[in-house]
Design goal:
Elements: H1 3-24, H2 28-43, E1 48-49, E2 66-68, E3 75-81, E4 93-102, H3 103-109, E5 116-117, E6 127-130, H4 137-140, E7 158-163, E8 179-187
Parallel strand pairs: 1-2
Antiparallel strand pairs: 2-3, 3-7, 4-5, 4-6, 4-8, 7-8
Helix pairs in contact: 2-3
């Protein structure tokens, strides 16, 4: 065979391979739809309230409802323990311990599976942020969803949060994976 016949065949094969591999990946819109479906599967087994109580007094405990705390349905909160009555002030240092569960896996298996985070592994230490101070990368890296409960609750509160990817860890937004977080908010010792 001569080179002129091999080159077009090779280029054609590469083009076909590239086109077929693109069909295997999902568009961002498809990933967002899957994310919403995963959250809906999880919340379908829960009591969900679409509005924050007017007096910001939440039902709490392991059987408490999930409250939609973002008007677009990006973050839902279940209050396990309400914590202190005094609200956290802006720019206050907040430590937190958490375990998170992949809700995409839950939608496929019906089980939360193994969680990850720093709740169980003391060696990982506590994570922290400055409340409502997103100018600091140490705060913004966690996303806005993790901080939303502190608009209503104080230190020593414990919540479960359903968070869509765009409100979660900034390093994971493009992965479009929703998570269920179990979080306890703690005060800094010196503050």
């Amino acid at each position: 065979m001569n080179f002129r016949k091999i080159l077009p065949l090779t280029l054609g094969a590469i083009l076909l391979l590239a086109i077929s591999s693109c069909k295997d990946s999902k568009s961002y819109a498809e990933l967002l739809n899957e994310e919403t479906k995963s959250i809906n599967v999880f919340l379908s087994d829960q009591n969900v309230i679409l509005d924050i109580p007017a007096d910001s007094v939440f039902e709490y405990g392991p059987d408490a409802p999930f409250y939609r705390i973002d008007p677009d349905g990006n973050v839902f909160m279940q209050v396990i323990e309400p914590g202190e009555a005094e609200k956290v002030k802006n720019d206050a240092l907040v430590f937190f311990r958490f375990t998170r569960y992949n809700l995409g896996e839950y939608a496929m298996t019906g089980e939360l599976g193994a969680g990850s985070g720093n709740s169980e592994n003391v060696g990982l230490g506590s994570a922290s942020f400055r409340f409502n101070n997103f100018t600091l990368s140490t705060s913004s890296q966690w996303g806005s969803g993790l901080q939303m409960p502190l608009n209503f609750l104080g230190y020593n509160s414990r919540v479960r949060l359903v968070i869509k990817s765009q409100f979660g860890l900034t390093s994971e937004i493009s992965q479009v994976i929703p998570y269920l977080y179990d979080i306890r908010y703690l005060p800094a010792v010196s503050e």
